[in-house]
Amino acid sequence: MKKKKLILEAELSKTDPRVKMLMVKIKKENYRPDALIEILHTAQNSFGYLPMNVLRFISKEMKVPPSRIYSTVTFYHFFSLKSKGEHTCLVCTGTACYVKGAQNILDEIEKEFSLKPGQVTADNKFGVQTARCIGACGLAPAVVMDDEVLAKAKAEDIKKIINSRIGAGV
Amino acid sequence: MAKIPVNIDGKSLEVESGKTILEVCKANDIEILTMCHLEGLGDIGACRLCLVEIEGINKLLPACTTKVAPNQVIKTKTEKLKKYQKITTELFFAERNHVCAVCVVNGNCELQDLGYKVGMTRVRFPYLFPKCEVDTSHPWYVMDHNRCILCTRCVRVCGEVEGSYNWGVMKRGVAARIISDFNTPWGESITCTSCSKCVNACPTGAIWPKAVVQGQFKKNPKMITELVEKRKMHL
């Protein structure tokens, strides 16, 4: 079985504002290897996810071994190695939300956009995720659309909401 | 160092404070089963084979990371511990594909020896059979994840002794795998120095040199212990 080779991505340019932000954070943390998680947070915030070239850049700048960085990134669910899409829709599938019809919402999204949880559209505009419980059981079924919590979401409305977000191009 | 009294398996001993229970037991010829422990490397208490009972504490504690305390009454060979050691061993075998008959270290394997030692006759748990890869990209060595028990001895020897930090552990639970660099094939690793320390530290047949046939390879983990001791002497 042939191992899928990682695509070597281009080196980061130092003039990229996102890279500048990352460098500021690294310098602020004084290149301390134990600040790796904070630095990865900053990187994920500015890039949306953690591309391999960013990880390679952090490893080189901070002199942290690549294996340590990859271990950290894959250990925590917060970090993502794949793009989550420009707009994200996170459907809570905790017990309360599930009982209140989270699966109907996911089915509706799959029908309309042919996306399963964890997938992103081909143009990278929209991605769907699920979470075990976001702690908003009183608002069941809860959907988080681009960091905004939609309370008591309905399967019929979800298509309209998503389309308006993608269409607005914010 | 101050001497403190402890009681291990009914024997009253005077031991140096600051030592771990495992060190004390080894010095006094009390056998404790270990798997992730390798003399010279830092202990992490991952394999749970060295668990001991301590009077007054209702948890079982790993001997390799627990320090002795004055007047402790430690038991290392109770029926409860033996039962748990057997379960732990069976779980090692149940997780991946440990097929001794086709393994390069057949007959010289720490996991195999452990199975005999605890008297394992069969595995009572369903095998998981995860999809594991065999990395043959390195010119000299092979990493076979099917035989890995995630003791992380290779990870620690690479970081602590060799200092190149080629190995790491990715993901968690059943998905956990030993990785080199950014989960790149071992042969393409930029940090690996091909020093073979991980090959010798590995207790099973997960890491082995190419061009050896079934049952023909013997590892030398003592080499790492000696190396660490020699380095300490000359510092």
Protein described:
The complex is a heterodimer of chains A (170) and B (235). Chain A is α+β, with helices and mostly antiparallel strands and 170 residues long. Chain A has 2 domains: 59 residues, no CATH class; 82 residues, Glutaredoxin (3-Layer(aba) Sandwich), CATH 3.40.30.10. Chain A has 7 helices and 4 strands. Chain B has 2 domains: 75 residues, Ubiquitin-like (UB roll), CATH 3.10.20; 131 residues, Alpha-Beta Plaits (2-Layer Sandwich). In chain B, 25% of the residues lie in helices and 16% in strands. Chain B is built from 6 helices and 10 strands, in the order E-E-H-E-E-E-H-H-E-E-H-E-E-H-E-H. Classes of the chains: A alpha+beta (170), B alpha+beta (235). At the A-B interface, helix 3 and helix 4 of A face strand 6 and strand 8 of B.
* Percent range for β-strand residues of chain B: 15-25%
Assign the CATH class of the largest domain in chain B.
Answer: Alpha Beta
CATH architecture of the largest domain in chain B: 2-Layer Sandwich
| CATH-defined superfamily of the largest domain in chain A | Glutaredoxin
- The tally of strands of chain A reads 4
CATH topology (fold) name of the largest domain in chain A: Glutaredoxin
Helix content of chain A: 40-55%
Overall geometry of chain B: globular
Number of helices of chain B: 6
Order of helices and strands of chain A: HHHHEHHEEEH
- The CATH class designation of the largest domain in chain A is Alpha Beta
Number of helices of chain A: 7
